[in-house]
UniProtKB/TrEMBL annotation:
Its EC number is 3.5.1.96. Residues 56-248 form the Succinylglutamate desuccinylase/Aspartoacylase catalytic domain. Pathway: Amino-acid degradation; L-arginine degradation via AST pathway; L-glutamate and succinate from L-arginine: step 5/5. Residues 261-334 form the AstE/AspA barrel-sandwich hybrid domain. The active site is at 223. This is Succinylglutamate desuccinylase. It catalyses: N-succinyl-L-glutamate + H2O = L-glutamate + succinate. It comes from the Bacteria. Keywords: Arginine metabolism, Hydrolase, Metal-binding, Zinc. InterPro entries: AspA/AstE_fam (IPR050178), AstE_AspA_cat (IPR055438), Aste_AspA_hybrid_dom (IPR007036), SuccinylGlu_desuccinylase (IPR016681).
Length: 347
């Protein structure tokens, strides 16, 4: 049984993670006329029969962190449905299960956090850098090979948080110099009942930022619950998101609306780890979006103390164990948006 044969049978995840099975490129056409193409291990391109005037080129990625399994299961379900003829997308798709080595290892990464490796092409000093380079090439090829006149580019990079959260699902909109915060993207956030969205205020080096910055994609990092092992995810908790995702890929457009049902946050500041003496004043398992009143002591790094800012702040992604120079936490505040053709913060 070849790699392509396994994928044709709908076993995209198992083929991707079976590293004893040599990868082979392959192209085939389903009975519906949908064209399938394996670009890399864990990277499957799906092209519908016809390109509509409202065509989207949609990247759906999972497994950038190998232990975040719920999104991987969702991508496998989607791939299986398409490959077996149960789902017929009307937009081009790039389905990604990103890091099989980390998935098999049941860890976020092997040597280096891969979701910090998308700023430029990396020196291939480890497997994480090598995979990040391959994913950059795949996305460049996917967007570059579109036959639509003016396709709407999208990228939803699906993750799970490593800790509990005051919001079970939330999205991060990366900061980009491109127009990457369309009202259609934020309508999807609301339609999918994602509980909160965080608007970044500085460039980063994440996968979703890469697609926004270099391709102008409507791009999000989406956190879907908390990390768990395969088979232990309650995917019913993600039913609204799954339903919205299905609508996104099988219908030409979704309704444009914003009813303020989603909590909006903006990044107030980023705490960087500058020394090994960095410490937080709160437990390691503190939930994301925990709020601190103004003046609360948050921690320290060398001689610098971190104090909650005016009118208080909430903390997202606190992690004192990151590498030196990396983000140890985001401090965020609630905000409001102007829902225009391109969404922007009030004030």
């Amino acid at each position: 049984m070849t790699f392509v044969d396994e994928v044709k049978k709908g076993r995209f995840l198992s083929a991707t993670c079976d590293l004893s099975l040599p990868f082979t490129v392959g192209e085939w056409i389903l009975e519906s006329g949908i064209h399938c193409k394996l670009l890399q291990r864990g990277v499957l391109q799906i092209t519908p029969i016809e390109q509509m005037s409202t065509a989207k080129d949609i990247v759906l990625s999972s497994g950038v962190h190998g232990n975040e399994t719920a999104p991987i299961e969702l991508i496998q379900q989607l791939a299986e449905g398409i490959l077996l003829g149960h789902i017929e997308p009307v937009h081009r798709l790039l389905l990604i299960i990103a890091h099989p080595e980390a998935i098999n290892n049941k860890t976020r990464f092997i040597d280096e956090n891969m979701n910090r490796l998308f700023k430029v092409r990396n020196q291939e000093r480890n497997i994480d850098c090598k995979v990040a380079n391959q994913l950059q090439e795949a996305v460049n090829s996917f967007y570059g090979s579109s036959k639509a006149i003016q396709p709407e580019k999208w990228h939803l990079d699906l993750h799970c948080a490593i800790r509990r959260s005051e919001h079970y699902t939330f999205a991060i909109s990366p900061y980009s110099h491109k127009l990457s915060r369309s009202n259609s993207l934020f309508s999807f956030i609301q339609y999918a009942k994602i509980e909160a969205v965080l608007l970044a205020n500085d460039p980063s080096s994440t996968f979703s930022w890469f697609s926004a910055e270099y391709h102008g994609a409507q791009s999000l990092t989406i956190e879907l619950g908390k990390v768990a092992d395969f088979g232990e995810n309650d995917l019913t908790l993600l039913s609204y998101f799954s339903h919205a995702l299905m609508k996104l890929i099988t219908e030409s457009t979704l309704p444009i609306s914003w009813n303020n049902d989603v909590e909006v946050y903006r990044v107030n500041r980023t705490l960087l780890k500058q020394s090994e003496s960095f410490t937080f004043s709160f437990p390691n398992d503190l939930p994301n979006f925990t709020f601190f009143e103004e003046g609360t002591y948050l921690g320290s790094d060398k001689e610098q103390e971190f104090i909650a800012d005016e009118k208080g702040e909430a903390v997202v992604f606190p992690n004192a164990n990151v590498a030196l120079g990396q983000r140890a936490a985001l401090m965020v505040k609630k905000a409001h948006i102007i829902f225009d053709e391109q969404v922007r913060l009030c004030g």
